[in-house]
């Protein structure tokens, strides 16, 4: 059985029972739908994109207040007098979305730069501020709120009946889930997922992480605003209470309890928390003999329990159980290696041409000189190795030539262009592919998905087209290209395996395949042989020899001397940040300074 049938079955059952549900259940389900919409945004933001927000309730408030103001204020009625009153809620929606997008963009630009605890703290600050703004503005009704909000009308049909409005709420929610699941299943979706593993890796794959983060943030805020808009027309009344920080925290509970990495986790979490809250509000005062918000205490304990026992939320547990019972096999994309030609192609420079050059590169950390006037170049069709004892400055140099850091003096030139001040993604765009000393893969995603991220820059389809599934031809080409590189690196047997479950040595090869999917002109490999067994090292050496023959420029930072001496055409040796030798393996091995630097270590 396929997963899609299960979703269609769920929709069919919901539609079939909807007309017969008691009014109270309809209202409850409508609330669940509204909350799930906000939690859906949090899944994208927190679970997928790795950014925590406590302030989503404030965006719900923006959506609700915008339409409340348009529909009830005399000033708005005067400006909109040329429109039939039935259209006011739609003007309210447009205004709500615009204001939310603007506010979210501004707040995002200010707070998304913050790392660690500062981002959640920033979201608390804006959650509080927007709540007090709603409550303190007289023209928004202050803390008393605004009433007499009209019901929605669609083509003259009034949605005053909660049963009809509930249909709209669930239709919007299901549509949002469909669009977001399409987005996540695309090139842009991979870029969003990559945000979670930190900026360094994603930028090196050509992803503009600042832009992606802000887009996800605005998207989550817009989902909250739509929920607020529907909420206002359902309640027909708004005041600041449902948009305060407590509710913002509840939305986060929903996403985390349901499963913050899963779109359907938002629906599950919203359902569980809403039902639980309803029951607890009934039972706890009776049990404790006093009234109060005791359910918050229970939620707190529940959150601790979920984080302890099911840190990915309840959705994966439920889905795993359903998959087992109904024998649903995990979906695997069908991939053909055709179509890769439709992606951007790079003309490799002729053999011998200088591709990457460091000129007089010096890097100082306070008093310490990590790199001292380093000169080196890498040419098309050669393997150049950079070696040196621990602490010699290899990683620092690697960071400089890959755009992670800027030299204090000197410059890096890539494909003839000076790169001072440019981010890693600019290096990727010019043809630099790289791997990492500490492997940086998305462990729970398949090898195929990880390698496909490497081809990110070679496609162009944006968010909207991806949401509408208009990206299928390009996506097939990206996956085809990823599969080609996987094959080439000898990883075909594990293409659909989660990358994190592979041995470290194989994960290093996945990183090489990912770099190759970007069709680089120069490949920087940071200790590629570390953790590889003897046969795997031989396989890697064969692959690099083949890539060299194809005209790639390869720079290897490596501690394994046997591997380096057998493979490299030229070797540069660093000690205390300074180049102490340069030449062929034979020349370097015979150099007394190199032998001294390695304190008699075996260089053969
Ligand atoms: N961000 C930093 N701030 C201060 N000092 C640093 C920083 N990064 C590196 N260093 C120092 O610069 C020197 C070179 O370090 P680097 O990591 O580049 O050496 P390496 O050759 O890569 O070592 P290894 O082979 O152990 O990885 C070391 O003394 C290190 O402590």
What do you see in this structure?
The structure is a single chain. The chain has 604 residues and is α/β, with parallel strands linked by helices. The chain folds into three domains: 3-326, no CATH class; 354-431 and 521-534 and 552-603, Rossmann fold, CATH 3.40.50.300; 439-519, no CATH class. 55% of the residues lie in helices and 11% in strands. It is built from 24 helices and twelve strands. The strands form three sheets. Strands 8-9-10-5-11-12 form a six-stranded mixed beta sheet, with helices on both faces. A four-stranded antiparallel beta sheet has the order 4-3-6-7, with helices on one face. The protein has a two-stranded antiparallel sheet with strand order 1-2. Helix 19 crosses helix 20 (504-517). It is elongated, with a radius of gyration of 28 Å. The mean pLDDT is 90. Adenosine-5'-triphosphate is lined by residues 365, 368, 370, 388, 390-396. Residues 365, 368, 370, 388, 390-396 line the site of adenosine-5'-triphosphate.
Summarize, please.
The chain has helices at 3-17, 23-48, 56-72, 74-79, 88-111, 118-136, 162-184, 187-195, 199-204, 209-235, 245-258, 263-288, 294-309, 315-326, 394-401, 424-429, 447-453, 463-467, 472-488, 504-517, 534-549, 561-567, 585-590, 592-597; strands at residues 153-154, 157-158, 354-365, 368-379, 382-387, 409-414, 417-418, 432-434, 522-526, 553-557, 570-575, 578-583.
């Amino acid at each position: 059985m396929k997963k899609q049938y299960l979703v269609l079955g769920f929709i069919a059952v919901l539609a079939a029972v909807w007309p017969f549900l008691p009014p109270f259940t309809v209202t409850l389900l409508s609330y669940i739908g509204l909350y799930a919409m906000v939690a859906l945004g949090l899944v994208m933001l927190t679970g997928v994109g790795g950014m925590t927000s406590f302030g989503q309730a404030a965006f719900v408030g923006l959506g609700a207040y915008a339409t409340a103001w348009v529909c009830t204020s005399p000033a708005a009625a005067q400006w909109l007098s040329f429109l039939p009153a039935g259209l006011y809620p739609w003007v309210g929606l447009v205004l709500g979305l615009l204001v939310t997008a603007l506010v979210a963009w501004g707040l995002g630009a200010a707070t998304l730069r913050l790392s660690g605890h500062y981002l959640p703290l920033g979201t608390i600050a804006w959650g509080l501020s927007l709540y007090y703004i709603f409550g303190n503005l007289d023209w928004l009704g202050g803390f008393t709120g605004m009433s007499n909000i009209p019901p929605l009308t669609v083509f003259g049909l009034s949605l005053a009946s909660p049963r009809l409005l509930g249909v709209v709420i669930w239709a919007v929610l299901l549509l949002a889930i469909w669009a977001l699941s399409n987005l996540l299943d695309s090139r842009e979706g991979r870029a969003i997922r990559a945000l979670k593993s930190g900026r360094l890796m994603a930028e090196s794959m050509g992803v503009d992480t600042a832009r992606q983060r802000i887009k996800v943030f605005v998207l989550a805020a817009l989902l909250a605003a739509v929920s607020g808009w529907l909420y206002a027309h359902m309640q027909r009344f708004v005041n600041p209470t449902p948009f305060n920080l407590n509710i913002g925290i509840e939305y986060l509970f929903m996403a985390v309890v349901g499963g913050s990495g899963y779109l359907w986790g938002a629906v599950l979490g919203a359902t569980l928390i809403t039902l639980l809250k309803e029951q607890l509000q009934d039972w706890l005062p009776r049990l404790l003999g006093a009234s109060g918000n005791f359910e918050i205490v229970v939620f707190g304990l529940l959150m601790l329990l979920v984080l302890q026992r099911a840190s990915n939320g309840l959705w994966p547990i439920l889905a795993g159980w359903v998959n087992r019972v109904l024998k649903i096999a995990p979906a695997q994309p069908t991939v053909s290696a055709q179509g890769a030609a439709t992606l951007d192609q790079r003309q490799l420079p002729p053999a011998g041409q200088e591709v990457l050059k460091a000129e007089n590169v010096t890097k100082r950390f306070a008093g310490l000189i990590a790199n001292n006037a380093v000169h080196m170049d890498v040419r098309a069709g050669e393997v150049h190795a950079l070696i040196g004892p621990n602490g010699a400055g290899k990683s620092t140099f690697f960071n400089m030539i890959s755009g992670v850091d800027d030299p204090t003096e000197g410059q890096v030139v890539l494909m003839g262009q000076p790169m001072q001040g440019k981010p890693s993604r600019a290096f990727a765009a010019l043809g630099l592919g790289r791997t990492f000393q500490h492997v940086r893969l998305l462990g729970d995603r398949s090898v195929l998905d990880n390698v496909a991220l490497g081809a990110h820059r070679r496609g162009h389809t944006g968010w909207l087209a991806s949401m509408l599934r208009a990206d299928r031809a390009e996506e097939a080409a990206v996956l085809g290209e990823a599969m080609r590189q996987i094959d080439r690196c000898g990883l075909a047997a594990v293409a659909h395996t989660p990358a994190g479950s592979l041995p470290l040595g194989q994960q290093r090869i996945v990183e090489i395949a990912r770099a190759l999917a970007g069709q680089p002109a120069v490949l920087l490999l940071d200790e590629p042989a570390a953790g590889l067994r003897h046969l795997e090292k031989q396989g890697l050496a064969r692959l690099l020899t083949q890539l060299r023959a194809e005209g790639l420029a390869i720079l290897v930072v490596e501690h394994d001397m046997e591997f380096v001496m057998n493979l490299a055409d030229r070797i540069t040796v660093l000690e205390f940040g300074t180049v102490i030798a340069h030449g062929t393996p034979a020349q370097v091995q015979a150099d007394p300074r190199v032998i001294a630097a390695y304190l008699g270590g075996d260089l053969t």
